[in-house]
Write a structure and sequence with these properties.
Helix content: 55-70%
Number of helices: 11
Oligomer: single chain
Shape: globular
Distance between the termini: 44 Å
Order of helices and strands: HHHHHHHHHHH
Structural class: mainly alpha
Number of strands: 0
Mean pLDDT: 79
Strand content: under 5%
């Protein structure tokens, strides 16, 4: 018995020797983050399916939350040519999704991330007084992603390989890096990483000139086309590529 009662446990039921759960390691935290991300919904070696792909890009609601704010900007700006309603209405669309998730008691992570991005874009446009400033955050994100991908290729640790390593069963050192010693797997994962480099480079090559020349409507339309549709297509190709060199284990298939 403890010498004195804990106010939170007046009956003295809780054991003073109860084990305290250890915090997750950095590798475990990264693994969880990747599995919760879009690309993490598609397990290496798993047979591709349309349903799994839709889940990987956020499901039907996730697609709507990603596409509708940008579509609203394009429609409103094309009709009115006015800055304020063009950037405010997408924010309101994002807030509607947040409210819906609150009412249905669903996770708000995706909605909050979406509304934050839309709000930052709207704020920049309002501050500068230029509609094309609405696209600065997207251009910066694409540039950062491109640089990160290129760095992983330069150091011979292709990002898709690192992601796949976090999704696969862990090896003896807990890192999931067995693919590095397999030339076939390394080659496929390097090619897959270069494909993602191509996606972000394509977006920048198209969007930056349109931004610099203030072709707002065309920029908005191109961003919609090169957004979720191209992301989903490349996710599918990456899935097919990794499946050629990674096979699911029998015990994994039974889970």
């Amino acid at each position: 018995m403890p010498d004195r009662l804990d106010p939170a446990d007046p009956e003295g039921v809780a054991s003073t020797d109860a084990p305290v759960p250890e915090p997750l390691s950095l590798n475990a935290q990264l693994r969880d983050a990747v599995r919760n991300a879009g690309i993490g919904q598609v397990a290496p070696g798993e047979a591709p399916s349309g349903r799994a792909l839709v889940t990987a890009v956020g499901g039907v609601r996730g697609l709507a939350e990603s596409v509708l704010p940008g579509f609203a900007f394009l429609v409103v700006y094309a009709i009115t040519k006015e800055l304020v309603p063009s950037v405010v209405i997408p924010v309101l669309v994002g807030l509607v999704f947040v409210v819906l998730r609150l009412v249905q008691r669903q996770s708000l992570a995706m909605s909050f991330a979406g509304i934050l991005g839309v709000a930052i874009s709207a704020g920049l446009a309002l501050i500068t007084g230029k509609a094309e400033s609405n696209f600065i955050p997207g251009i910066v994100i694409n540039l950062v992603c491109l640089v990160v991908l290129l760095v992983t290729l330069v150091i011979r640790r292709p990002l898709i390989g690192l992601i796949v390593g976090l999704l696969l069963p862990q090896d003896e050192d807990g890192t999931g890096t067995d693919w590095r010693a397999d030339p076939g797997k390394r080659r496929v994962l390097t090619v897959a990483t270069w494909l993602w480099v191509g996606l972000f480079a394509l977006r920048l090559v198209i969007e930056i000139p349109l931004y610099l020349t203030a072709q707002v409507e065309l920029l908005a339309g191109i961003k919609l086309i090169t957004g979720v549709p191209l992301y989903a297509a490349l996710l599918w190709v990456t899935w097919l590529l990794t499946r050629t060199v990674f096979k699911r284990e029998p015990d994994q298939a039974a889970v």
